[in-house]
Here is the input.
Amino acid sequence: MFAVVFIISILVAFGIQFIGKSLRHPLNRFPGPQLARYTTWYRAYYELIKKGGWLRQLEVLHAIYGPIVRVGPNELHFNDPRAYGEIHAPGSRFHKDAALYSIFGNKSGSVFTTLDPQVAVVVRNVLSPYFSRRAIVPRVAIIQEKVIDFISRLKAHTSGSGKAINLDHAVHSVALDVLTSLIFSKPFHVLSAPEFDHPFIRHIEPTYTNIWIKKYLPDMNTPFLVAFTRFTSKFNAVANVFAAQLELVKEDLDLALQDVEVLRDGNSSSMRKSMSSPNTLKRLQQLLGRNRLIGEGFNLRFAGTDTIANTCVVGIRYLLSHKDILERLVKELDEAWPQDDDIAYEDLEKLPYLTAVIKESLRLSHGVVTPLGRVVGPEDAMIMDESIPTGTIVGISSVFVHLNTNLFPQPTKFNPERWLKESPSRTYLVSFSRGPRSCIGIHLAWCELYIVFGFLFRKLEFVPVTELDPNQPLQFNDFFIPTYPGDPLLVTARERTISHN
Here is the structure.
């Protein structure tokens, strides 16, 4: 009896302490749903049960509570674009939210998953020169080679076969082969898969739909859970696909480093294709270590592929459903590129309407859609004229910036024209984030987008299998990046011929 009373007393004491802390919490002055004040499982319900429905719920909450909403025991979300610049300001010392970035694993580590900005900037300064415009431009020929190979595959795929192309898979395939051709010693060769149905591409959506499950699992460092994870991975096709790609990254790095040693000994006259020369690759290993390089490589595989592919697919969808916009783009390309010889990347960059089409595709594909949580500190911060206590997780999804009606009138409409005139909204394209933690591969991304959009619509004509509604905005679910439910984009393709009259 005494033991029962003792246990009840402890539970009551803990309950009183919990209620007391909740009543005195510094975020109590911010409105929000009552359940979200006490548990992160409020958000988990929308991420897990509603399958990527957290962004849709955020829209509902802001409509009810206003521009600042308490969405967790220690978390605020904003819907005013001003907050984006204040949260991601240059020189910010805010750490990344550990709960969010843990889903990508920190075992090997990467500049993306590093929480402390002061640590991240050191690694970023080491890597940035290899992703500068100066470093990317000499590699343009590799990107063009892969895109030309892609176009050949598209033409061969449809020649006399009558089979439609799954453009979602096809574009992800070329994006992955471009990235791996540039960063690693050889591509993953996903373009060679029949019907663009490579396992690395096929498991894109299951991969991302599983990330929220990982976020809410207990600590994976405990012995029992490690053993359980190893056991279940045998039956998890997605985990096995992840593991296969990680092994390719490890093998590639080890082979490249072996080549460095061979070159240093004077026993080889050629260097494998890689972003770095022998000396710089060895220097990177010395500065970062093998595990860190593996982490960076694995991160680049996803960060440099899926967001770019999404931008291309979204842009192609809108272009195919807006014939007037497509005709204007094709006309500009034909005038700038009248002969079948290749065009220089720098010349594509100078095309104003192509640039506008790419920017509008970036805006409506958003990049990462999940709010990139930051932890306020080391002291309180002012965000939207409100004092936010140290330790608070703050965030705003890029969607609330890109679909803001004041910045972008008729925000769900695909309208490249909006980028052809001077406007303050031009600075609110945040597909690559902003500030000290913005995407390190932005120059590579822009280069690839110019070449993919430019070459595809100069060389090919696409016909969707089913008619696309120009007035229907694309719907997506929030799995860090957007995933698009429903049928994939199926098209047929044929080579374009240009009249020189």
